[in-house]
Design a protein that fits this description.
Elements lengths: L8 E6 L8 H12 L5 E7 L18 H8 L3 E4 L2 E4 L8 E4 L1 H5 L6 E6 L14 E5 L10 E6 L2 H8 L6 E4 L14 H4 L6 E7 L9 H9 L7 E7 L3 H9 L4 E3 L5 H10 L2 E3 L5 E2 L3 H8 L4 E4 L5 E2 H6 L4 E3 L2 H13 L1 H18 L2 H18 L10 H9 L2 H9 L8
Parallel strand pairs: 1-2, 1-6, 2-3, 6-7, 7-8, 8-9, 10-11, 10-13, 11-12, 13-15, 14-16, 15-17
Antiparallel strand pairs: 4-5
């Protein structure tokens, strides 16, 4: 019996790690699950990450329930093995990986990834057209990079500095709307008259920030209403800080299901942002806005401040712990202002961050690029690939360093 050729666009999404609670993985999985399955066939590549070479970064916990979630949406979930990555090499090559063997088994019309934007492994070795969701605004001049969608105005502004002749735009990641769940006030013994502040984070010391809790402690004597503070997940350092400050804080385990995140956000009146590593855009801010919450954040010197664009004027931006404390006082004591900012946040989030419009725009991009590059395979001989070869060879790297004029050619 004759078979009908699959006319769908086959997209290989490649995410090292791929299942963690981090924003890049969550936004990619949400997009993959939302795409029209009659028009797009998705291969989702992931691996269990081991400790990177030449790095003290500790990978966050993986959420293996994402495997069944994606499969329930018709996604071909493919695990590959990798021993480690070498972070000392600027391309972060994967060592002893089975990725290319697994990749060769499936059809790929387009490659997609949420990533920092710099040229990196394995994309520098692929020949198919690549579309990226650019997180940090770095620029990749690889010839098969055909579209760079920045996750925020901050990332797009950084990317534009490279002046690449490439299609680019801003597409904020999508977040779900509020779940139909109850709040946590009764469970935690928090009264209806209390103004509740808090934040949620993955359990990662690298993103620990002490400013929100220190500001809350400083603001307490000025608050005219009862208040509570909740931290979901986060570094163990927060417990030590709360003890140091003598502040009562409700600590809850990391929210592994979105219903748990939503229940927490339903409990809050103010989202007290406390990321210590800066934000490329701030998924947690988006989620808070979807729940009608105003946010307070603090700019950190030398760190990304993409969350400011995400907030879009629906919260307060501070520069010191003292300013943060004053912002807490202002929003706790002024219910009308708090509610007005929250309503504005919900309206902007519903228009800009909902799953349907974000998915629709990516479907348009995938359709356009698949048609423009149908069957196209780019040459593996290009300046980025050559530079990777030199970076990976101690002899060639030393030779180029000794003969600077070679940089004009390689």
């Amino acid at each position: 019996m004759a078979t009908t050729k699959d006319q769908r666009i086959h997209i290989s999404m490649i995410m090292y790690g791929g299942l963690s609670y981090g924003g890049a993985h969550r936004q990619t999985i949400r997009l993959a699950c939302a795409l029209d399955r009659t028009r797009f066939a998705i291969n989702y590549f992931w691996c269990k990450p081991n400790q990177d070479l030449n790095s003290d970064f500790v990978w966050p916990e993986l959420d293996y329930s994402n495997i069944e979630l994606m499969r329930s949406h018709g996604i071909n979930v493919i695990e590959f093995k990798t021993q480690t990555r070498d972070i000392a090499n600027k391309y972060h090559p994967w060592i002893n990986t089975t990725f290319f063997e697994e990749y060769a088994k499936v059809r790929t019309d387009l490659v997609f990834a949420s990533r920092g934007g710099y040229p990196e492994y394995p994309f520098i070795k692929l020949r198919e057209p690549i579309i990226e969701w650019n997180i940090f605004g770095c620029a990749d001049p690889s010839p098969n990079m055909v579209c760079s969608a920045a996750i925020s105005h901050w990332a797009h502004a950084n990317w534009k500095k490279a002046g690449l002749p490439l299609d680019a735009e801003i597409i904020y990641p999508a977040v779900p709307g509020p779940a139909d769940v109850s709040d946590l006030r009764a469970k935690l013994g928090i009264g209806d008259d209390a103004v509740v502040l808090g934040f949620h984070q993955r359990q990662d010391d690298h993103i620990y920030g002490d400013h929100a809790l220190r500001a809350y402690a400083a603001a307490l004597p000025t608050l005219q209403k009862p208040s509570s503070f909740i931290i979901v997940g986060g570094s163990p350092k927060y417990r030590a800080l709360a003890a140091e400050l003598g502040v009562d804080v409700h600590f809850l385990p990391i929210a592994k299901e979105y219903e748990d995140v939503s229940s927490f956000l339903h409990t809050l009146d103010i989202f007290a942002h406390s990321g210590g590593a800066g934000e490329a855009h701030g998924t947690v801010i988006q989620e808070a806005m979807m729940h009608g919450l105003p946010s307070i954040t603090m700019l950190l010197e030398g760190k990304a401040d993409g969350q400011v664009g995400t907030m879009a004027g629906t919260g307060l931006v501070t520069r010191t712990v003292g300013e943060y404390a004053q912002a807490i006082t202002d929003l706790v004591n002024d219910g009308d202002r708090r509610h007005a900012l929250g309503a504005q946040a919900r309206a902007i989030a519903s228009e800009r961050y909902a799953i349907a419009p974000v998915t629709r725009r990516f479907e348009e991009i995938f359709t356009e690029k698949a048609a423009a590059y149908r069957g196209r395979r780019f040459s593996p001989l290009n300046r980025v690939a050559l530079d990777f070869m030199i970076e990976s060879s101690p002899f060639l790297k030393k030779l180029r360093a000794r003969l600077p004029f070679l940089r004009r050619f390689i």
